[in-house]
Specification:
Elements: E1 3-9, E2 12-18, E3 32-33, E4 43-44, H1 46-54, E5 69-70
Antiparallel strand pairs: 1-2, 2-5, 3-4
Length: 74
Amino acid sequence: MSVEVPRIYPGGIFPVWKGLFFDPASWDGSDFFMPAQRFGFVFVVEEVKKTFERAKIRNVKFTPLDQFERSWTI
């Protein structure tokens, strides 16, 4: 479950939600995965991240799920 965390911005203090999670039972075991309830997010296994780094593929950002922050509820 995501945790609400206050963040200070120029306009004041606003909440953000830290953490992005999905039901492990919904994962089909593939290296690239898009859970139905998280439209727009692509989850990858650690080996995919390492392969991209070794190949020097750019213009992609990997964020650990427990460190992901968003300003909207899902």
